[in-house]
């Protein structure tokens, strides 16, 4: 279980989180929603260990974290399959997930040969192949059409057994992930 | 004009070379003194004589070996130094004045200074090394600093091992910087290495042959040797590019 108690975090020019508390159970799914700049991504960065809270208590942060960042962050010199298997060391699982995500024909394509939506799904596959107890999705469905979003959410729910923490602007995406909405 | 633009690149370059060859021939005709400007024909004739001498081939091979050794040492230590300079700021502070000095001091000063300390046959190795080192050091340091921080962050969050981060993220990011240092550095190594040979004159070296020809006022031999040096430098550059291409295909 991840627990954040009375967390505060400020950037030099702005305070983004103040006395914020939050708990995420082992198999819980939460969708964080809120206006731009309210600290959603900062909260994810704190949980991923990329930032340190200036005050408050943090417990149970997992490492590694299966993360889909706002940007795809795919490695340009690797194929879709190699990118998906980057952290997991299991190419067969990566191939299975990529195929389930509709990328079976693109396993050996490099990122620059893929469309934006395809690259997004490779980034999701890479996270699903990561050996972790927490999946973080930072606007993971950006650039996907409605049908692909449904299909992708289905694959996420069937392939991921741990906790999910998602950031989204759309309640429909939270519903697709069967996640409880938390406004911050 | 449009027809010329449509020509293949090798043909355009050959025409360019032909122009300069014709100009050289014309100047030699006008001056009409072999001692000042030998004609292309006289130079080729001397080149033929040189190529028939085994000692010339030994000299060319040994010069190439010395220069390549200096280049390889610079590539190795420059790469390690560039990485350390990025990872460890005190290391960077310590060595950056030295590298600045090497970059700004003329090569002849180093050759004359090193002549006092280093055994003659090793001097071209040392000078090639010294001139190429800052290039690799600087390029690799820049490459390290320009490695995509978001990719590194991704590797850290997804729990990639340090070795995997180097293999999958850092080394591919450094590759273009290393390649650029190789291409520029090889030319640097040749120029500085041969300059060192001309001054320190180790036995069996192109620099020694060049200096002897100059002292004996054999201008066609000086021209012929200069052409040999340019051709060897070009061949090495082509070989390096071919090696690189093969590596990328694999």
Give me the secondary-structure topology.
The complex is a heterodimer of chains A (184) and B (250).
Chain A: E1 2-11, E2 14-24, E3 29-33, H1 40-47, E4 55-59, E5 66-68, H2 80-84, H3 91-100, H4 116-128, E6 134-138, H5 146-159, E7 163-167, H6 171-176, E8 180-183
Parallel strand pairs in A: 3-7, 3-8, 5-6, 6-7
Antiparallel strand pairs in A: 1-2, 1-4
Chain B: H1 2-5, H2 9-31, H3 40-51, H4 54-87, H5 89-104, H6 107-117, H7 123-145, H8 149-157, H9 162-200, H10 206-215, H11 219-249
Helix pairs in contact in B: 3-11, 4-5, 4-7, 4-9, 5-7, 6-7, 6-9, 7-9, 9-10, 9-11, 10-11
Summarize the structure.
With 184 residues, chain A is α/β, with parallel strands linked by helices. Helices cover 30% and strands 26% of the residues of chain A.
Count of distinct strands of chain B:
0
Q: What's the architecture of chain B in CATH terms?
A: Orthogonal Bundle
The two chains with the largest interface, and their residue counts, are:
A-B, 21 and 13 residues
**Biggest sheet of chain B, in brief?**
none
The span between the termini of chain A is: 20 Å
Task: Write structural notes for this entry.
The complex is a heterodimer of chains A (184) and B (250). Chain A is built from six helices and eight strands; from the N terminus they run βββαββαααβαβαβ. Chain A has 184 residues and is an alpha/beta fold. In chain A, the strands form two sheets. In chain A, strands 5-6-7-3-8 form a five-stranded parallel sheet. In chain A, strands 2-1-4 form a three-stranded antiparallel sheet, covered by helices on one side. The radius of gyration of chain A is 16 Å and the shape is globular. Chain A starts with a strand and ends with a strand. The model of chain A has no long low-confidence stretch (mean pLDDT 93). Chain B has one domain (51-249): MetI-like (MetI-like fold). Chain B is 85% helix and 0% strand. In chain B, helix 4 (54-87) runs antiparallel to helix 5 (89-104) and helix 10 packs antiparallel against helix 11. The model of chain B has no long low-confidence stretch (mean pLDDT 91). The A-B interface holds A 48-50, 63-67, 69, 71, 73, 75, 77-78, 86-87, 126-127, 130-132 and B 150-151, 153-154, 156-160, 164, 168-169, 172.
